[in-house]
Structures are given as structure tokens and as C-alpha cells.
Amino acid sequence: PLGQYLNGLATKKAFKNSKVFRIERKANFLQQSKGMAADFGEAKFIQSTHDQGNNKSLLVCESQNSGGRFYIFQKNRAKRLANGNMASYFQCRRCSEIGDGPKARVSVHEGRVTKNPDGGHHPNCEPLDHASVEALRLKREIISSVGRGGVRPLQAYRQGLAEIPRRFPDQEVQEAVEIAVPPFKRLRSCMYRAMARNILPMHGINNLP
Asked: What is the pLDDT of residues 13-25, one digit of tens each?
């Protein structure tokens, strides 16, 4: 544990001494000195599996350095600014999974990403391709749909797979998304949990459809 901690500190120090960090810090300072917020595009989200309305839990940011590849950020917190608007703060999901070391963070103000999504990542963090992002989106939609309107897990899974050719006319993209979607066996346990969560208030535990 001590060795991992020291390695994490060394990695953070190396990043703060890097050219990328210095350039990003200077750019942010110039933006702030001019009274402007940096703008890295519209904030786009993947719905939560616990969605009961519009819970925007995962932020998808396209890499500015690698076109067609994306980082996924998990929401950390939100706060109200002096002007009354809400600001949300996100941390890179993959960096968090890796563990010790730098973790990229971005913020969203008024529906816009205001920090470079490429900055501050763990050295082993790589952005996802388009198919992986769409597979994640579809997986979450499948899980959140279970139990609603009497939809059972296997039925929800098949309906989700049937969406792929409708959403992606390109055959190569279809095949890539189909490969990236986890098999039903891997999703089954979380789908049954979602079914219980979605329908218990209506039917009770002894009357699951």
C-alpha cells in the first residue's frame, strides 16, 4: 500500500511538471483573466440505470486530440454559482477504475463542458471508440427498461439488440456495437435487480410478473 501511494504521488508530480499540464493551466488562466469560460462543446449524457426522469449521471466527451474517441465521466457533485446557475463536476470513470494516480476532471456550466476533457488523465487511461460508447448507452437503456410495462429481462435485452440496426445503418458499426454489448448472462443479475426496483412499488415482492 505504501509503495502504491508513493507511486501515485510520483505520477501526479510528473504530470504537474509536464508540458501538457503547463499549457492547459496557462490557457485556463488566460480564459479567466478575460472573463470568459472555456468552451469544449455541448454536454452530452448517457442515462442512468436508476433513471426516473432525467438523471444525467454519465457525461460523454469527445477527445480533442483523438477524433472519434470518447471519455466517460461520472458525476461527482453540483453546486449553485453566485449568478444562480448550477455547475456540475465530473471525474473520469476509467481513471477511477484504474485507481492510484491522476484522475481527469471536467465541469459543466449551462449545458457546456468548460474544461478540456483530455487533460489530467491517468497514463493508462485510453478513450473509448464510438461503438463502445453506444454499447454502454444501449446497455443502460436495456437495464432501465426492465419491469416497466411488464417487460421482463430477456425481452428487454432482445428489444435492445433489435434497436441496433435501426440506429446504425452502417453494417460495420452495427457489428461493432453488437460485439461490444455484453451477453445476457453478464447483465442478468443487474437486470433482475432493476426489475425489482422498478415494479416493487406497484406489485409487491410476491407478485413479480
From this structure: 555 555 555 556 5
